[in-house]
Amino acid sequence: MNSHHNGHKTLSPQPYVWSEPPLGEAKSLPPAFYTDPAIFKAEMEHIHLKNWFFAGRVDEVAKRGDYRTFDTVGGPALLIRGDDGVLRAFANVCRHRSSTLLEGCGTARRIICPYHAWSYRLDGTLAGAPNMSEVPNFDPSHSSHKLAEIRMEIWEGAIFLDYDDTAPSLAEHLGNLPDLLGSHRFGEMVCTWRTEIETRCNWKMLLENAMETYHTGIVHAATIGAQRSVSFPTVGEWQSFQVLSTQSIAVLKDKPPFPAIEGLSEQSKQGTHFTLIHPTTQFASAQDCIWWLAVRPVAVDHSILSIGGCFPRSYTEQPDFPQLAAPYYKRWEAVAREDVGILEKQQRGLSSRLARPGQLCWRDDMILAMNRWVVGRLPAHIVEGVFE
């Protein structure tokens, strides 16, 4: 484990990765961090609108005119591939009086506002504005009439957006994550399934839960059962652990129908990597597939959980792929719904006047790391004394 890749040292697993305060003194965040609208508002301003978040896969908008719409922390958004073959991200908002433009996903030759029929080319420039020719000084080519573009970068087929044009690049944000996951060759995969689940819980709870195996033998006793994991020190705005298993855990208790991805690193052959790309994106990378959990905060106790799955293209070209892939979809949704069920109980518990921070276990190492990342980006008056 001493080789180097892309200038980074290969990551080595550890039983757990701990940071201050010492094990035995560390506690969970105060309940207000999950229930106070003022803290949620600060998180939106200082975290969600200033960092990269996952928006989908390039293969979902692969052809000219293909588009996908979705809601984000910054409002309605639109991914669309232009006539020039370039993929762009826009606010899904008309520049006239701010109606949303497209709905769902599909293919378009023009983007036409359903309110007053202003129309846009696929590169976002204004194509037509009825009755505006009589308006003095109206210049349809002016940049103020072009759809508002959202900063976008792509890593291995994964699309990320950021509303802060001054934020570090996606490559800086990811740090050495590509060194750990590179052998999965995400960019050669195809998205074959996605769903969304509305949840009545704080956004952090969904990701905290996704980054520990402490609960799996209890909450998931009837599905995936207890799991054993190791953790990884990381460089960049992400954290990771690996559930150890000699075969894919992306199905329930059946034997995985697909072989391991060709060319996987020795470490990746040992199990499934669960990574949190701060603040809201998890990629789970098994020996035969990847799946994601992406969280969109809506309110302090309301979040949308997006789940999707990808396979190597060669697997998807098999004639019986739909039947072979069905157990993966069943597992991904079943486990997610089990998690949502327990987290909604936790959210109710956190509203108790007697709720207090609880002492963390060594198996909560990723929880502590995530909490410290969040707290480190909020104003001092909000977080004063949290880790004392």
Automatic annotation (TrEMBL):
InterPro entries associated with the record: Rieske_2Fe-2S, Rieske_2Fe-2S_sf, Ring_hydroxy_dOase_asu_C_dom, Rng_hydr_dOase-A
A GO molecular-function descriptor: dioxygenase activity
Enzyme class: oxidoreductase
Boundaries of every Rieske domain copy: 52-161
Key words, A-Z: 2Fe-2S, Dioxygenase, Iron, Iron-sulfur, Metal-binding, Oxidoreductase
Record bears the keyword Signal: no
Protein name in UniProt: Aromatic ring-hydroxylating dioxygenase subunit alpha
Organism from which the protein derives: Dongia soli
Top-level taxonomy: Bacteria, Pseudomonadati, Pseudomonadota, Alphaproteobacteria, Rhodospirillales
